[in-house]
Structures are given as structure tokens and as C-alpha cells.
Amino acid sequence: MRASRAFSRALSVDEALKVLSGTLNGQASAESEFWLPDWPDDSEDDEPRKKDAEHVEFSRAEAVLKGADPAVIRWCFDHRQAAGRGTHTLASSNYWYVPMEAGGDILAVVVISFRAPQAAEDPVTRNLAEALIALGAQTLQRIDAAQDARQALIAMEGERLRHTLIQSLSHDLRTPVTMLRMSAEGLLARLSKGDLAAARTDAGKLLESTERMERLVINLLEMARLQTGGIKLSKSWIPADELFGMAIAEMGERLKDYRVDIKIADDCPLLYGDEVLLLRVMTNLLDNAAKYCPKGSVITMAARRRGDRVAASVSDNGPGLPAGNSQRLFDPFRRGRRENAVSGVGLGLAICRTIARAHDAEIIAGDSPAGGAAFTLMLPLVPVPEMDDEEKVLAQHEDDAEALPKAPDGKAEAASPDAAADSLNSQPNKA
Fold first, then answer.
1. Which residue in 78, 220, 378, 418 is a FRET match for 19, CA 20 to 30 A apart?
2. SS3 160
3. Which CATH architecture has domain 2-151?
4. Which class is 235-380 in CATH?
5. Is there a shared CATH topology between the 2-151 domain and the 235-380 domain?
6. pLDDT tens column, 417-430
7. φ and ψ at 146, to 5 degrees?
């Protein structure tokens, strides 16, 4: 049955009601609309009070009829019976009110208006409509169960992430805090003894631990901000070499023990995206390479065009990717190595993927030609638009204004009306 197949493809309440409305229209020659119960959700246990029917209200969906009576809809909901035309309750009504029931719950009340008067009294037509309504109710029940299952999975995943975060922070935040305290104590002891050389060493350790703590906190805050769904992109065209240079500068002393090469293809287009967020991606990829590569390794930042994409990558000649599905490295709290010497909570690559998705881009982990790891951001290629004639005229007017002779007070002298007219008349006509 085509109706069954159509209902099986419905993934939301709106889709299911559209299918039911269209099927009733096509097979039963009836127009319909639906009144859905809105359950209050202000109970003490934060669960909808589905047993408290007194406080339920209704919202209309697929609203096409005029004059449907809310009091009759309420009666059908409370008594779980049909009313209106063709029934013993309000038989003089122009509409037929039918509760949609499944699993012991009234999921909606459907209001039906038959286009042909005789169809409203035809048992075959009414039985067909009731069968379609029952099928629609089963679909709504399936969708409701699927939504409950998704919410349960989301809650379980959230709990798992919280547990993982606590485990990660228990080590990765405690370690730099301990180092901060020890370095500060050592620095005070050296200064009290006048040992400036040793004090300088302790000061360096103190700074390193502080920077490590700062990176952890920044990643935690950045991930929390990105996952709120409030990302607002401020896109512009950015040269790859400029983006790479800013990322290297931001890393600062973190890269002092590594050689960083930049390779940009001659025909590489400009990157189009939010400069601040793309800088965060490149910085996190550089930090990831420095974290897992031994000192003296070569880190390569490259950019080139790949079809309708611009590929910006960070690769190295270090130990490479761990065995298994490399794309799992972008999951939150996923660590490439489990050694205690490697700091971090596993959010850097997750942040990169979130930013990539906000740009309709993707980020891929793979093997580097040098034998290490490679992470490539594939941004959509967006050509730089050329200035239209109007922009060129405005630009020319600005140049002309700057070229005007200056008055004694330093301001440009205003052109005469005749000169302004001549200037406008000299512009070429547009087709």
C-alpha cells in the first residue's frame, strides 16, 4: 500500500501529518487538520505531566479548515471518542472529529471535512479514513519512541563525555598545577640564595607550565563555546601564507625545537573563512604535531588547490598516526597516544572538526609523505568577486575627492555644480 510506504519514510511529526493529510485528500476526498496536545512540562520531576489532562492545551497543524470547535476537540480528547458528523455526538456539525490513539495515548485529534456530502455518510469511505488515521497514529507513536530513544542516547553520551572529561582533567590539569607550585617554590628558594642561573631555569619551567595550563583551559572554553551552536562566522579571503605565519607566531617558543617549512602552490587560491577560527585550526594542528613529534622533527604547512576545494595541511615526519580508524581522533577526548608524558585532554582535533563543519568543510587525518602524520583541512573554493562598475565608480570618486585642492583649513574644496555635472557625464553609460 502506497500510504504505508509513505508513512514509513516519515521521520518527524510534521512529515507524518503531511502524509496523512495528503492521503486523506487523495483517497477519501477529505480535507483535514490536526490538533496536537501540548503537555505542560513544569512538574517537580521535570517530566511532562501526561496524566494531568486538565492542563493540556492544543496547537493546530496543517490548518486548512475554518470553524473547528476547540470545545469539541477537547471533548474528543477527554472521552476518547469521535464526535461531529456521522456520530451520535453533535451530528449536525459540518466536521468529523476523530481522536488519533496509539499505545493508550491520544496523540492528536484530526478534524475532517468531506468534500462530497454523500461521502460523509458512506461507511466504506469512513472506514478507509479511520484506517488511515490509525496508520498515522502508529507512525506518530513510532516517531515519538524514536525521539525518546535519541534523547536517551544523548543523555548517555553526555554522561560518558562528562566522565571522560573528569578522568582526563584529573591528570592533565593536576600535572601543570603541581609543576607551577614546584617551579614557584624552587624560584623563591633560588632567589633567596642569590642563585640567579638556577632561578632563571625555574622561571622557564614556570612559564612552560603556565602556557600548558593556558592551552588546556583555552581548548576547554573553546569547545564549550562551539558546542552551544552559537558560531557566527565573519568570513573573508585570507592568503594561506598569512594564515600560516600567524599560526607560527602564535605558537611562539612552542616550536623552537622544530623546523617549520611552508609550501604553497603558485596557483593556490585564497582561503575563504573566519580568520580567527581558521587560525585556531592551524594553531591546534601545529600544537598537535609538536606534542607528538620528537624534538628536531620537520613540520610542513602546505596549501594548494584540489578541484573545487582548497587544501591546507599540517604534516610531519614523526611517529605517525596510531593504528585504527584515524577519523576517530577527531572525537572529543580522544587521545592519539596514552603516554602520561603527552599533555592534553583530547579536544584540539575535535575543535578543528567543529570549526571545519561550520565552514562546510572537512578535515582528514592521514599519513604524511615524510612518514609521519598529516591533517588536511579541505575548504570550499570561493573565488574572489571582481568589483562591479558601481564599485569602480565609487572608488574613482574617492580618489578624485582626495585629489581636490586643499583649502587653507586643510579640508578639500568643494567642486562647483558644473564640475560635478561634467564628472558624472564623463562616466560611461551602462548597458
1. 78
2. helix
3. 2-Layer Sandwich (3.30)
4. alpha beta
5. no
6. 344 334 434 444 43
7. -65, -40
